[in-house]
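Re-run with default settings, no changes from the original entry. Doing this only to confirm the output is reproducible before filing.
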Amino acid sequence: MKAKMKRIQGKIRQKMSDRVIHGIYNDDALLLEGVKELRSAGIEITEIYCPYPVHGLDTAVGLKHTRLAICAFIYAMIGVGLGATMMGFMNVVDWPMNIGGKPSFSFIENMTSFMPILFECGVFCAAHGMVLTFLLRSWVLPGVSNTNPDPRTTDDMFLVLLQLDDKGAKSAESILKKSGAVEINDV
């Protein structure tokens, strides 16, 4: 998040004519309406800060669908592969045992008894991989400082951050006022 804020600040320094506008809402329905109006006017929204998830906001902003499910599948297959390797080595190569008449001559013959453990290895690696992916993707790591532009967004306010030129800023401010923003700050 800190890197994202630095990137935003770097873009601001690049274009000296750009302005950063914070539109603050106190209701999620008004926020959703304001975002739709901004998007229909062709104004690009840099970031939105909310105290809780707002249903339909991702489609209103125009976010693409996430590819996290692909990551989860890859992590699960890595877990299944590691689990199969571990069980194949332990039960067939390293310490073969005949328990209940189950043969220990090959991994394929023991595959049905390995299925629950393979499933659990897949779930284990998928869950832990997704937690690490979330922490790295959202940059929520130990020692990373908070970059929230307005602390009220953690309680009951919603903030729309816009980076625009002077002409776009005037139209954005009028749209924000019209859509019910309780506060408009030019940073």
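Residues 68-138 form one domain. The chain has six helices and four strands.
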